Amino acid sequence: MAANLVELSVEQREVQRLCCEFAEREIRPVSLAVDAADTDMPWDVWHKAAALGLTSLMLPAQLGGGGMEDAFTQALVQEELCFGCAGIGNLITSNGFFAKPVLVLGNEEQARRWVEPLASERPPLGALASTEPGVGSDAAAITTTAARVDGGYLLSGQKSWVSNAGPADFYVVFATVAPGTRSKGITAFVLEKGDPGFGIGPPIKKMGQRAIVNADLFLEDCFVPEDRRLGDEGEGFRGLMRTFDHSRITLGAAATGLARAALEYALEYAKTREQFGKPIGEHQAVGFRLADMAVRVDASRLLVWRAARRADAGKDVSLEAAMAKLHASEAAMWCTWAAVQTLGGWGYSREYPVEKWMRDAKLEEIEEGTSDIQRLIISRLLLA
Ligand SMILES: Cc1cc2nc3c(=O)[nH]c(=O)nc-3n(C[C@H](O)[C@H](O)[C@H](O)COP(=O)(O)OP(=O)(O)OC[C@H]3O[C@@H](n4cnc5c(N)ncnc54)[C@H](O)[C@@H]3O)c2cc1C
Which of 48, 80, 95, 106 can bridge 230 by disulfide, Cβ–Cβ 3.0-4.6 Å? Predict the structure, then answer.
């Protein structure tokens, strides 16, 4: 379990322990097989997590969720689950990524319609679609259009890389009602699987985090009734940025769990593997590498917790969330590389988990804003 660098409440310690045990008992034993199976959704683990309430912990209690809406508790949960496996851990909490814009932008009826079912015993999956083939880092450049027609909108365009696309029943899709006006026209809609004109591409073959299915969405004059629009026209970009400020903290926590997994594994190996007549950890180069890993893990956690505490105090967290995400994801990449290095040739083997963790870590530096984009956000805010 994570080293608790500040005092936690009884409830927080309890949820942390529950997630750590789930990671060790249910996630770790299947993690390498899920990775090898590639793009097969691990429904079994998903249903077990749902039965324990882990897939809906972060949803409001009045909608049947666990009521742990604070970013801090969610960070504790994410670190433990992703300590087990980043792909499976991120899958388990992925409905939070769909629910956030519904809760931020939508009305009560919409929350009941799409968020409440996520807290049921056999919850459906949700997805969030912003990225397009030609639009990634510059999210305000969205080209998918929403043209007003009688009773609703016709959506046309293509979305890329959507997590849970295929297995998901509900999709928040960001489109523009005023092409060429950048963020001003961006509006959020909920699409449901099976809507006419709504197609889903084949799963994309990925480097890592294969427990989550990613695919493109194809929208061809897809009719969306007015009551599926979240908030007013033009409010979508604000909802997307609020979602990212929150999810970047969670993503930082996921990366911390991954880095910690690498540290603990390398540490154990370095104590038992002997070369030149002594455990390799006693060779200074190896020991110092372990020291650097430990520093990065704790620094990541502290940055994540700082951002989470600020978010929970209702303060703006654009700067702190970007710092946490940037540091933790780069630390995860470095620590998983360091674990592979510490295991030597065995680190390169699929019999050991560290090469998978290195592949998993790479994603943390890319999704929800690459490291370059986090640096852009941080530098702009520092200079402002
Ligand atoms: C596994 C996975 C899951 C994903 N899940 C989702 C999802 O559920 N929903 C969704 O909408 N999207 C999702 N994405 C998309 C993801 O958010 C984008 O891939 C990411 O934002 C980067 O966009 P891009 O791939 O188009 O890269 P680009 O924006 O084309 O960037 C390419 C390179 O240029 C750099 N770059 C771009 N602009 C600048 C700049 N101004 N300054 C410096 N460098 C710059 C980038 O850092 C990067 O190195 C997912 C992606 C992956 C790989």
Answer: 106
